[in-house]
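Input chain follows. Return structure tokens only.
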Amino acid sequence: MREPIVSQPTPMRTAKNDAAQATPTTGNNQQWIDKAKAHLLQNYKQQPIVLERGLGSRVWDADGREYLDLLGGIATCGLGHCHPEVVAAVRAQLDKLWHTSNVFYSEPQIDLAARLTAASGLQRAFFCNSGAEANEALLKLARKVQKDRGNSERYEVITFDNSFHGRTLATVTATGQTKYQKGFEPLPAGFTHVPYGDLEAVRKAVGPHTAAILVEPIQGEGGVKVAPPGFLKALRSLCDEKGLLLLVDEIQTGMGRTGKVFAYQHEGILPDAISLAKALGNGLPIGAMLCTEEAGKSLAPGTHGSTFGGNLIAAVAANVVIRKVTEPQLLRDVAQKGEYFLTRLRELQSRMPTVIKEARGLGLLIGVELVQDAAPFIAKCRELGMLVNAAGDKTIRFAPAYTVTNDDLDQGVRILERALKS
């Protein structure tokens, strides 16, 4: 389906860009897919299209076909594809300086740290390249803080069943899904998993070796499951009572995704540290760990680092993002669009109760759980011109750009209904 793009950001206009928007530039999907299968490690289950260009909530493949993108790079392109302010900032920095390493200071990184700490209520920022690295920083921080407190026996972290925290050996062990761990045993020691949302199970799991609790406000990869009301606040109280660190994984939920800058702010709490990535750079690779002043003292010079962390190009993009997502009107828009979309999806559920089990989410992170495997319906959505993906086996995940329109969301519901009826 080809519908006009409405109310989306427009990239900087040149004759060359106009031509690029008008026609595909590199050939057809199958040629590139064949080349990928010959050379890329086959570790992804990739959808069989090659995306070439994008604008707002639309993308085009190598055959020139247009798609409504309601996945946004998996909750990553929060401002939409080719947002003009991000493009302008990156272009300007490319003409100045790309990389210095963290042996030196750089203005974009310092500015970003100041903006993030002001928005979060935390005091210190560390930059890296990805969500997994940001969570690695959280885990190292928790152990080091406890050792500096004189609690050298405290090294374990409580995490949750069905969680997802990354693909490194430590973060895949923190992840509460055995399918991601299979084949990589023996896994590192130091992690205990309990049912998500079960405060009593958390309390029983706390022992003399417990250093911290690591939690997602919404389990993204686990099926877009929102924490029960009051759960994060109760975890904060438990951590205070037991001398633990509360670590919040905001990789999918942070940077405005839920209608707050950070999802923990819905509960009115302050964690000891959080992890960020995905939407932080609007698609450019950057991650961050933010922490309190007290906790940050434990990562003294030489204890942790990253060659590319806070790279100037990614940092200038992230500065645009944090400036935009701290605008009250944008956050209100995200909340309102999320409520509108969820209402429309629940109306669809009421018409198709034998197909849709539940529609749930917060802001513009929404899951539609089906009664059967989601993969065939995701493929059908793509055939009909919409991009989404699975979160778990039976849940279709939607994570559109914050600039998405209600007309786009209506189109998404229509496409989903057609796919499910097929």
